[in-house]
Amino acid sequence: MSVRAWASAAAGVLLLCAVACRKEAPRPPRWSGPPPYVPAPVIHPGEAPPPVVEPPPVEPPAIVPVEPQPRRFATVQLVGVRMGLGRSDGTAWDFDMGTAPQKEDVRAITAILEKESTSAQKISAIKEVFGRPTAKVVSKPDVQGSAALLVDGVVTTTVTLPLVSDTLTPEWKKIAWKKVPVDATGKLRVMLVENDWKAAEPVEPFEINHAHVSAALETPGKPHSVLVADQTDREVLIVTFTATPE
């Protein structure tokens, strides 16, 4: 063999070795079964067991005490109510002598109460309906009754509402409650009757709750009106009262 042929053969062998060396070695198969068994340490007689290393204790998060809010109280004075144009069934307040409300006026009040607007806007619109000539001639009730302060569901103070005759807007003086809680534990319940010549016929009662009193406290001592028509089946539309903080 010539020197040139021998050199060419040697170069080919070196090239094959280089290519073979570049190939990756096969990876061992992954173990997908349970972890391998590790035997427990053997403790010979006379030897101490290995120390038990416990994790450090976890401190519970610090509890920040919440300071209780001071309880608020108010003095609430009932000013008056605005009765509906008639009873919930559309009849007149006075059975024999009265004029029943016009259906157009009743529908107008219903539309106002169902409209998407603020309470102040609804109250203003209701007063406009009562200014109509047809609303001015409806029969007017003779209203009396009682009102009670309830705290935690228990009646604490009850006052009598004297008779106010022939008006849709009866008002009272010096009807007030002290120590009215301005929270969910306190409310005022008003129970009216229409003193017809035949008998005293009850009117659907309504309540003044802590949210109403809280809203009235934003203007202390000034008359504050609240819609209660949804509580009374529209026999009483509006209640007006004042609230002053104690």
Structure, described:
This protein has 246 residues and is α+β, with helices and mostly antiparallel strands. The protein is built from six helices and nine strands. The strands form two sheets. Strands 2, 3, 5, 6 and 7 form a five-stranded antiparallel beta sheet that branches. A four-stranded antiparallel beta sheet has the order 4-1-9-8. Strand 5 (186-195) and strand 6 form a beta hairpin. The longest helix has 20 residues, at 3-22. The mean pLDDT is 86.
SSE order, one letter for each helix or strand: HEHHHEEEEEEHEHE
Radius of gyration: 44 Å
Number of strands: 9
The overall pLDDT average reads 86
Tell me the number of helical segments per DSSP (H or I, 4 or more residues long).
6
Query: Segments where pLDDT lies below 50 for 5+ residues?
Result: none
Quaternary class? single chain
Structural class of the secondary structure composition? alpha+beta
Largest sheet: 5 strands, antiparallel
Shape: elongated
Helix content: 10-25%
| Strand fraction | 25-35%
Q: Concise description?
A:
The chain is an alpha+beta fold.
What would the keywords be for this entry?
single chain; 5-stranded antiparallel sheet; 4-stranded antiparallel sheet; alpha+beta; 9 strands; elongated
Compile the SSE list and pairings.
Layout (H helix, E strand, L loop, with lengths): L2 H20 L50 E11 L19 H12 L4 H12 L2 H4 L6 E9 L2 E11 L11 E6 L4 E10 L4 E3 L3 E3 L1 H7 L7 E4 L1 H4 L3 E10 L1
Antiparallel strand pairs: 1-4, 1-9, 2-3, 2-5, 5-6, 5-7, 8-9
Helix pairs in contact: 2-3
